[in-house]
Amino acid sequence: MSPWTAFTVVFTAVTSGLLGGVYLAFSFMVLPALSRLQPARAAAAMNQINVAAERRGFLLPFLLNPIAAVVVLVVFLPQLHLLANHWLSLGAVFALISLILTLAHNVPWNRRLATDPECWPAFRHAWSASNLARGLLNTASAILLTVGLLN
């Protein structure tokens, strides 16, 4: 494996781990705390969090992770006969599935909450389930990429 390829795998694993940690922290700490607030206050707080998430500090790893995952797939998918490449490819796929889930489910719910704070109870239920899935997908991505790198 070339140094550039190894760097791309490590970068994808690290950013997947970071994203997984953010999503899981939301599931286990932030959403339960918001749920203790009155619905209008919870919706307002979540809307502020969503605005803050659309800044460089979060968007950079959020956007670079799937780009790096595609590079990992392009490099290792043609050589799938090697066991390590199974782990690397699956880790990259999990990162991409997390992005698809975000764009297909979480972002539309964020937009809906921004225009209709009254939807908070439905938002919390639907958004938190997919957020937990994103956290688990990204964490699994980080683990699989690391296992593939070590094999």
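[next item in queue]
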Amino acid sequence: MVRSAWLVASVLLLVVVVVASLTIGARPLSFDEVLGALFAPRHGDVDQVVVRELRVPRTVIGLMAGAALALVGAILQGVTRNPIADPGLLGINAGASFAVVLAISVFGIVSPSGFVWFAFAGAALAAVIVFVVGSRGRDGSTPVKLALTGAAVTAAFTPLITIVLLSSLDTLNQFRFWSVGALVGRPLDTAGAVWPFLVVGILLAAILARRLNLLALGDDVARGLGDRPAVTHALAAVAVVVLAGTATALAGPIALIGLVVPHVARRITGPDYRWVLAFCLTLGPVLLLSADVIGRVVVAPAELEAGIVSAFIGAPLLIAIIRRAKLAGV
């Protein structure tokens, strides 16, 4: 009952943040003006153009990317039994970044809507490498092996990215904006291209929820309770590929959301992944959209990218969670 009340509260908080994302910015708008732009459009109205062409796309992308980042973080932490697992740790962001660099330098693609499939493919390739290599051997995919494989993948891609960037100033100028992580400048077409993958990822997360609870007890105990850990790992790998690819394609390699949000959810719900994943669907977008709104106003009329602000918010939040866990003896 308490967890249900908290979940309702998180949904209401998400609604508030969505309204803030549509109304707050360098050009403040009232809620009535936003409703008018959405349901009673007027040709040539500048305020309505701001809502429809700028704020709606970044709000939709924030909702999708935030949910995907939080879910992939929770799934990675569950399947690897590693509390600091996230797309960055397992080399997924590095794979996406390398693919985007290639898209810019080799194919001359300069728009976010053009990056989307390259980022998705790079993230998917890195995730597949990590799970395939990290699962070899008699012990299967242990947390240490996956973390080490992810570090190796990051170490392999990073110098390649650097070589390309140092050889092309134009590529560096285009890439540095994407690499920060942002919601601005992403057209709604980007969301339209990848939303089916997000739906598939959410469905896989729902299927994995009970399996992750069993896996948390250890592979041997999970087998004794009727689960097949190999199947769980395979489903988790697919979910990670789909969700991480979706998130990085939409918003770039935004850090800490996939790491922090599952910890916040567990502080509210306990270790039950059925609830943790449900809270990730709301708290991930809340954190990402809040970071985007703060970035619009803190240095107005300029903006800070959501990836920068989310790091400033997420780092102290994670430190506070760790300190509370130590004080509680966890």
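[queue empty]
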